[in-house]
Structures are given as C-alpha cells and as structure tokens.
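Section 3.1: Structural characterization of target chains.
Under the original work plan, the team committed to producing a structural model for every single-chain target entering the pipeline before any wet-lab resources were allocated. The record below documents one such target. The sequence was received from the expression subgroup and is listed exactly as submitted; it comprises 313 residues.
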Amino acid sequence: MAPLPRFIPDDVRIGFMARRHLAMAFSGALVLLSLVLVFTVGLNFGIDFRGGSLIELRMPGPADLAAMRKVLSELDLGQVELQNFGDEREVLIRIERQEGNEEAQRAAVEKVKQALVQAFGEGVEFRRAEYVGPKVSRELFWDGVFAVGLALALVLVYIWFRFEWHFGAGAIIALFHDVITTLGVFVVTGYEFNLSTVAAILTIVGYSLNDTVIIYDRIRENMRRYKTMPLDELIDRSISETLARTTMTSFTTLLALVVLYVVGPSVISGFTFAMIWGVIVGTYSSIYIAAPILIHLGLRREAVAAPAAATGS
C-alpha cells in the first residue's frame, strides 16, 4: 500500500533566511504601529481594569438586547454594555463607574434592576451584581502587567540556561513581538481587554515558546552535526525539519479555536480571538523572528559545539 501524502513532506527545504530582512522589517513596523496605537488610541479596558458594576441576569424568554439597550440608555449611566453568555436568555450588563462612592454604584445597579423589571416584567431573574472600585482595578491592571513581565523574565532565564544567551535573547524578542502585536490587534478590533485577555496572553507566551524551543533544539543539534554548513543554511534546514510538526500543531489548535470562536458564547470571544491571533503570530515569530535573530546576534558555532566535544560525542 502506498504511503499517504504528508501535510508537509519530510524532505522539504525552504529558504526562510533569504526573506529574513523583509520579515524583520515588517515585524518591526508592526510592533512600532502597535505601540503607537496603544499609547494614542488606547485599549478598550474592561470593568476589571477601569472599574464599574457588573450585573448577571436571566430573562424570562430570549433576551432582546436591542430593546434592553434602549431601556438602559435612558438612565443616563454612561457607557452600558450588554452581551449574551451561556444560552440566549442569560445576559451580562456592564456599567461604567459612576461619580461618587460605592453607594453611587449600588444606586446605579438598582436603577438598572428597576428599569428592566418595569420594562420586561417580574420574570427577570438577577443572579449577581458586583462592583470593582478604582483601587482594585488599578491593582488588577498592575498585577496583570507583573504576571506578563515575570513570565518573560523566567523564559529568558530558562532559555539562557538550556541553550546560550543568544537563544534566550532571541526567544524574548520573539515573545515581546507576540505580546505587543496582540495588544495592537486589540486596539484595532476594539475587543474588551480584561483579565481573561491577560490569561490569553500568558497562554500565547507558552505556546510561542514551545515552537521556539523546538526550532532552537534542532538548530543546536544541527550545529553539532554539520560543522561547516553556513549558519543561514543550517537554520533553514532546522526549520524545515521541524516544519511538519509546527504547522500541524498550529493547524489543529486553530481548528478548535475557530470553532469555539464561531459557536461559543460571546462572553469568551475576546479570549478565543486573542488565542487565534496568538497561534498565528507565535508560529510566525518562531520562524521569522526567533530563528534569524541568532544570525544578527552573532551566534558562534564554537559556543554550541564545545559541550559536545567535551563529552566525546
């Protein structure tokens, strides 16, 4: 029986490094644009980071978000966001933080409850109401920044000890690229940036790092195996040898994420969108950022080959 065709042939050879200057220029422009957007337009921070009130309720029938939005717009509470989650009867309402103390926030929640009951009847079931104050929201924001920064720092230490400093620096530059461009995409799309988005970014860091380590490990093996091969050719060979595994992993992960994004509840759409973007950009950066940066950082073959010689291999 003839073998089944493979998604990526084992003997494929692609000249990735021939396009490295173009790819890195494109990535540099993308990072710069993302930073400009973050500091000028700004992220659409959710209630976790800007403070406000959250109401979870269940309507007696399918929720008419347009009608509910019209009712709440007459209350003069500022920005009010509604979205379905779970089934079509369950609704999340987010109200921006009101001027004043916690009593003002409670009063806003009560106004919303009374208006909805008056408009849709006593069958409206209020399940929970939460208030996030400005102090808590600031703490959550900086905790999120600290979590991402700590993850990047630990990645640098891990890669440095497992490989050489060139690999650690390359991995951090690639992860920085992934995180910043993810923020830029959130500015462009207007998706709410909240704690679940921070969780998605940390997941993206882990996913991208996994791809990068696989390629780095093959580069190190090939540097010990092919003593005279030019570094750019060796990196091309290493990426090509791991390409089937990288693309198949990314493809199957994307399939699950796209299905979840299309048919899943809207309450997690921001998380799944971030993950979809992260899988794509993480695969790209492992090939076109993390690998070619080794050439620009001046990786020397002796630094990798020396341990193998010392052990007699």
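The first helix runs from residue 20 to 40.
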